[in-house]
Every structure is written in C-alpha cells, then in structure tokens.
Amino acid sequence: MNRRRGHEEEDGYDRLHRKRRRVSENQEIEDRLESLILRVGEKSSSSLESNLEGLASVLEADLSTFRVKILRILTDCAIRMPEKCTIYATLVGLLNAKNYNFGGEFVDYIVKTFKENLKTGKWNPARYCLRFISDLVNCHVLAASSLLTLLETLVDAANEDGVPQVRRDWFVFAVLSTLPWVGRELYEKKESQLDHLLVTIEVFLNKRSKKHWPALKVWSADSPHLQEEYLDCLWAQIKKLRQDNWSEKHIPRPYLAFDSILCEALQHTLPSIQPPPHNEGDTYPMPRVIFRMFDYTDCPDGPVLPGAHSIERFLIEEHLHNIIEAYHLERKECAAQLLCFPYKAKIPLEYCIVEVMFAELFNLPVPRYLEICYGSILIELCKLQPSTMPQVLAQATEILFMRIDTMNIACFDRFVNWFAYHLSNFQYRWSWEDWEGCIQLDPEHPKPRFIREVLGKCLRLSYHQRVKDMIPETLAPLVPLKPEPIYKYSMEGAGNINKIT
Fold this sequence. Notes:
- Belongs to the NCBP1 family.
- GO terms for molecular function: mRNA binding; RNA cap binding.
- It is found in: Nucleus.
- This protein is mostly helical and 501 residues long.
- Among the domains are: 301-401 and 409-414, Serine Threonine Protein Phosphatase 5, Tetratricopeptide repeat (Alpha Horseshoe); 427-482, no CATH class.
- The protein is built from 19 helices and no strands.
- The termini are far apart.
C-alpha cells in the first residue's frame, strides 16, 4: 500500500510538473509573438516586406494555439500605434489570404472593440479603430461597399437631433480623418457613393454652429495666418486631397508590394454597426482652433513646409501630437521620438515640432498637460539638436512677440511663464536690444508689459542684480524694483504699535 501510494504521489508530481512546464513554454511563445508583432516596422537589416511575409508565416503556424492572443495583440497595436496602421493592416491582409476564417474572426474582433470604445467614450481609440477598419479595404480584407455603409451610418449619427454638437462633430471628424487612408480606393471602386457621402458632410458643415470659434482663437486678428476651426480646416484639406485624385505622400503603404497576393483573397463584409445613443454623462472631445505660426516663407533653404490646406500638414501634425501624448511624461524620450520623425527628410521638422508644441501650450481653454511639460520638452529638443532647434525657437519667439498685441490673455500668461522658464535654463541670454523700441510705447501696451512680466518671473528664478545686468540700459525702466525686507517694528511709529500691544 505504501509503495502504491508513493507511486501515485510521484505520478501526481510529474503531471503537475509537466503542466507547469507546458504553461511556461506557452507563455514564452506568447511573449515572443507579442515582441515580434510589436517590433515589426522598426529598423531592421531586412526589408519591411520580407519581415511582414516572415511574420505572417509564423503567426499562421501558431493560429491554432494562440488565436485569441494574436487577435488581441494585433488590435491593441493598431489602436496604440496608429502611425503603424498600414503595417498591421498589411499583416492582417496576408493572414486573411492564408486563412480566410481568421480574417473573418479578426473583422469581428475589431468591430467589437470599435463598439466598446464608442460605448465607453474612448473617442481616440474608437477613431483609430475606424481608421484600421478602413485600411483593411486597401488590403482586400473588407469590401469597399461595406465600409461606405458604415461611414454613411456614422455621418447619419451626426445629423441626429437633440444631442450635443460636440457629439455630432466627432462623428464627422472621425469619418473625414479616415479618408486620407482609404479615399483613393473608395474613389476607384465606389465613386458615386463616396461623392454622396462628401455632399452629406458638406451640408452638415454649412449648417453647423461655430459660436465657440472666437473664444478659442489664440489671436483676435486673422493676419497673417487665418485661425481656422478644426473641422473647417480638415474639410478644406480633404477637398484639396480630392482635387489631387486622393494622392498623398506621407502614408506608408506596404500592402502595395503584396497586391498580387492580397487581390486574390476573399473579402469580408462588416456587420451592421449602430452608434450607441447619447447619455447625459458622456464627455466628448472639445472643439479647437488650428494653430498656425509658420508658412513656407519662414523656413530657410531645405524641404518645403506643406501648405496649410495640404493633407500632409494634417498627417504630420497628428503624428507629432500622438508622439507628445505617448511620451509626455518622459521629456528626454519625447524629444528623441519627435526628432526621429520618420519623414524628417521631406519636411522642415524643427519648424513643424515647434509649431505643434506651441499649439499644445496655447490650446484653449486649457492645455492638455502642465505648462512646464512643454517647456521641459523644448529644452531637451534644444539640447539634442543644438545646431538648429534654438534658432527656430528664437524665430518663433520673435513671431509671437510681434503679434502679442492681439494675443488672448490666457495665452499671453502662458507665453510669459514659458519664456522666463526657458531663459532660466539658458543663462538668461537673449537679444534684448531688438526689443528696445518697446520702451517708447505706453507702459500698459502688451509688448512692454510682456517684457516687464517676464523680468518679474526671472526675478523669482534668479536674483535682482542678475536680472538688472542682463537688460540693456534702455530697458532698465522695465526691471522690477529690488525686493527689500520690511520689518514693521523698525518703521516710523513702531513705538506706538508696541504701546498698543
């Protein structure tokens, strides 16, 4: 009996050990698959096409065991790394060509995720889901007519009565911001249906109220750059894209290399998707005004800055905003990621970064993050790119100062705080002589007032003599008074105070 019990216990131990080893091995494989999916598209000795082809083969071999895990990772990557949307769409397209059932399961999974994000008010993830669903049309995973039905449903939701305008605006913005990825495909296959969709959007935009627009402007004057409401600006960019036959230069399209494989795959159709109804507790993205500081005449010789109504400007700015959102808690990493922008050879990158950073800082009514966040990232950018970034930032400061008399008062205060903080990190060096003419203006004019408030902030970050020494004599009247301690018991009449007490 004892011998038998010992044998049974040993068998139980072996079974448990084998089970643990199997779980451990599965975990290792899952981690390896996740790492491969996350890293696809990064710099590699082999081409992106060969990496995608190899990864598709690896994933197909593991579908039977890790199907749910692969579905989840691919969807998470598409949402959290929207700049790699076309890479993951191509990967799904290759898997669909190899395994039609998996393609259908992925469509169901991404649609379920899209619905959940809409229901829970996760508006950016929902928009990236919609973009990814649209890009699946380019990879022959979804039928173009099926996508257009979904887009029409979303635009219909924008015409719903009795709901906040911010809700209706979001649905139109989500559809318009998707078209740069899939507009060409829809134009070639369903031109009349696409035209009808655009007409419906145009009618909505023409009827839409813009009472919020004046309150969100950084400047009260529209010269030299028109301050456009964000939906109006995107609509102008989409119209320009349409005139250019839906052709753009800043979206990588790796699926074109696999066209012969993907075009033979069977396509899926989307299930019926109805946006959830509005609830009183729902919070929607706020409207905004597009901040413009530079145009191509401000940039020296080199790559040309895309025009304000080119779709490339929208794509560049959205990508830079996404980088700031992802890395804003790590200023050094954020600066490094901004300077590693993938299309930096095609654009004046420093100008684009500075414009986007000030757009974030001057966002009304409040910036997305603490003001010091933007100041610290700009300092890191100057350290990482000392040959160009300080000059671009100085040029931006001059432009802001020249237009300061029409600047919104909240933005004026943020500009003061940022400039004083920035000076304190660069030994308070500035070409103050260029601003000497301000002393002749009324003391309450915004320009001398700006200098006076900046010097007041610098005094808090330094000491009076330092502030006095860094300013030319002509601007000395704007230097704040030297702070002196006040000891009330040594003042005239102090004896009477003592008697009373």
